[in-house]
Sequence to fold (1076 residues):
Amino acid sequence: MKLHINGTVRDVEEPGDTPLLWVLRDELGLVGTKFGCGMAQCGACTVHLDGKPTRSCVLPAASVGDRHVTTIEGLSKDGPHAVQKAWLEADVVQCGYCQSGQLMTAAALIEAKPDPTDNDIDAAMSGNVCRCGTYQRVREAIHLAAKIRKGAAK
Amino acid sequence: MSAAVSRRGFLGQAAGLAIAFYVPLGSGPKVAQAAAEKGAKAAAKAVPLPPANAFLHIGTDDSVTVLLAHSEMGQSMWTALPMLITEELECDWSKVRAEHAPAADVYKFPMFGMQMTGGSSSTYGEFDRYRTIGATAKHLLLEAAAKRLHTTPDRLTVDKGVITFGKQTLTYGQVAEEAMKLPQPATVKLKDPKDWKVIGHPTKRLDSPEKIDGTAKFGMDVQFPGLRTAVVARPPAFGAKLVSYDDSAALAVRGVEKVVRTTDGVAVVAKNFWAAKLGRDALKIQWQQPADGGVSTAKQIAEFHDLAKKPGAIGTNKGDVDAAMASAAGKIEVDYGFPYLAHAPMEPLNCAVKFENGKVDVWTGTQFQTFDQVAVAKVFGVKPTDVDIHTMFLGGGFGRRGNPKSDWIVEAAEIAKATGLPIKTVWTREDDIRGGYYRPSYLHRVTVGVDSRGMPVAWDHVVVGQSIMAGGPMEAIMVKHGVDESSVEGLGDNPYLESVSAKRVSLHSPKTDIPVLWWRSVGNTHTAFAMECAIDELAHRAGKDPLAYRLALLEGKTRHVNALKLAAARASWGTPPEKGRARGMAIHESFGSIVAEVAEVSVDNGVIRVHSVTCAVDCGGVVNPLGVEAQVQGSVAFGLTAALHGELTFENGHAKQSNFHDYKPLRMYEMPVVAVHTIDSGAKRGGIGEPSTAPIAPAVANAVFALTGQRLRSLPLRLA
Amino acid sequence: MRHGLFVTSALAAVAAVTFGSLVSCGGPPASSTPPVPTREQGLAAWGTINTVLQHPRCRNCHPSGDAPLQGDDSRPHVMNVQRGPEGEGRIGEQCTACHGPANPPASYGEHTPPGEAKPWHMPPPDMKMVIVGMAPGPLCEQVKDPSRNGHKDMKALREHWDDPLVTWGWNPGLGRAPVPIPHDQLVAAFETWSAAGAPCPQ
Fold:
């Protein structure tokens, strides 16, 4: 099976019904995408599938098909992504384990909603669990990222 | 150092410069801790100078690497401890990095005599040691520079790692090699707090860059050629025992290599996680149910209520409680109930173990290196010093990764030993939620006699719940006369009760098959709720404002009074909240810090919504305001999960909940705005990782009462 | 092709119901054109449809508010999932973030999000087709009202029963109860109801 991951085509030998998450982590060594629950409850495994946030822990690798997978390792192509800059500025992370997933969802959010409201953030980010409780700074960072993104676009 | 270097090798990170700043160990160095905080005069007690070489490496490229004797699990010790060193070393913060120290005697925490992280103690407990290390290093670097420049250290100035003498400059990196050959100073003088440039200033985390691009390495991420993954079938009920198993189907799964016994269960070892998981699914195991049928929640609650009818082992006993109760003008008797709770850190437990040539390497996120080292040594029959613990980033700990029994680490060691292979265990979320070592279930029966003004004159407090310390290495210290201090902390010595002349706190510690452990803020998770809700009930009964009633009881407790007043003022206590909302408050002292919280809530379709939480925090002094704010916000979120959702229930020893769908964590849309106000009281420094956890549940419960008139006396809070 | 199939299956279904009732009366088929079902038969058929609609597999995606329900107990969907502007969820939490192109393999375990080849979604906000909390009469009126049912005439309504997200209800994956009334019985009931003039209970 061939998968388009972070801009390159990767050959994968694992059976097609293996969750994409475990192909990424165990076969391809892309361990930035995290295992948290295995049932799409926590969002730690969030990747982009053709730009859309998707839980890789419940997605059989074979069903990815020709769609393009972007993981946290591939989020920043030309220097840090706006959300990554904002995350540094707002000092968001604590233990950090959920943050790959938080960032992937946040990046998709500001791509689709360049100026997200708190309500948009509640809707977008409630599938990404953080047990350390970084939510408040995630929220601040998303607003900041939207500003950074707009600034860069000018 | 070998451990750290080899770990970097494994993780494929740049090894950096190997030249280490090195302070020769030896002949009786001493430090006089001058300039203690708040102007205390030089102090005094001579203590051995910590060996700076173990904690600090200065590269010829001027990089400063701080070795951390504690584990980074989100609490920002990774930043706070380097700040302490930087304050005294006067190095360039942009060149400071941190890494976990290996497990070794030199990294034992003076407060506890072992290498560990817990009790919210890392920053304040290392406040002197890490500053002293920085001061020692600076002293030696300046001496070396002075020699090179043919002058004396006192004629040098230093700023951000650059030493200046007239027009000449040298960097720390340029003199590090010479400095490490110099003899250790006899004493070092620490800075006067008024000269601090780092401590007390908002400082961004050092571990952010690697945690935002996916490169930070958690135990889960350890990979190296030959490493297998093990997934373990553990007893489905606490107290159940393995009878027999059939592994033929498991071994037929593609990628499964071996199936071995562990002490409690059966491990499937495969080339990767998914194969091991499928292999475990294919195991056919016969378990024997516990002889007593196992714990069932409803039955246990009834048993706890029976026990609560009589006093247990006496923790606090002052005055004649029974007589005072009998002659009181009035009385309230209330029960508060608390369920078992799992820690559910985002990173499920895992542990990699490799045994080779008589040496063991362990990669995991742990809070208890010393215990783990000894436990693993025992499994392999080697010396503890033959066990290298490579502490990885912890994807949350909350107490679960600090187990004196090292349960998940011993299990991994057993599998590595039985298979002769390097293996990494991976727990699923279900394994984690059902895996035990929970915050125990408790019942508090609180009987309070009041005088004619409604003020307490007799306080009888019975606690029922499993002991965390019993049967463990801390039992000798923590369990006194049958009372586990951690089960009753915050009760007998609660400042509300200081003026109460007759008071009794007693404890029943029933034993069950359910393994229990500390959980962020430990006993305070339930004692603060019982105290703060009872006080609120008393205030209501007395017809007094909850703030005024508390302040009356806390008269003379300046720190408490100030915290309450600040939280109340910032939350606009006394002014009407938005329509449909109400406020409630709580205050609690734990880990040396005092936190008051005011919660503003509403009820929407029977669902409690917490809109804002205003916190006033007195932790003595703040090292990193950004870190303190994050810990308070995080603690509130953690405590809110328990207040609104957290509950494990059992049937015949089997935990009914299994994953985040039925063991629900707080989510973004439920997160209130948490405002954090710190009080620089100058009191003895306390912790910050835990103390804000306990007050949130009672603050919310008291707010719900103010709004609805319903007293919710058990957690999680559920409206009738 | 689809139209041809629809006609065939519809005729067969009607035949099954009407012939069935005649056979039960013991008489031979009267003619090749089935008789028009009575209003009573139509109302009884609606009862069957109503039962299906109120099953969690159907009602969970047709809530009264904007948050879907989940599970056999129709509890509110966790994680603040909302209908969104197109009925596909909101940015960051689109239905398809978790609900993939098929039910996950059984090896993924219970409680994993089910899926279908047709992207998972709810009715759009301008045509919510609420089922939850609706009494049989008003629900029936709503179902046949094109201004409220997504502009569906009887033919389109009939086709909706073959929508992959609807037939999923009979194959809902591990740990979920399928719709208890067989799909062909539902279709037959619909045809009867439709043929009877789509009567609604008062």
About this structure: Confidence is low (pLDDT under 50) at residues 1-47 of chain B. The domain at 2-209 of chain B is CATH 3.30.365.10 (Aldehyde Oxidoreductase; domain 4). Residues 536 and 546 of chain B are 6 Å apart (CA to CA). Chain B touches chain A through 62 residues (CB under 8 Å).
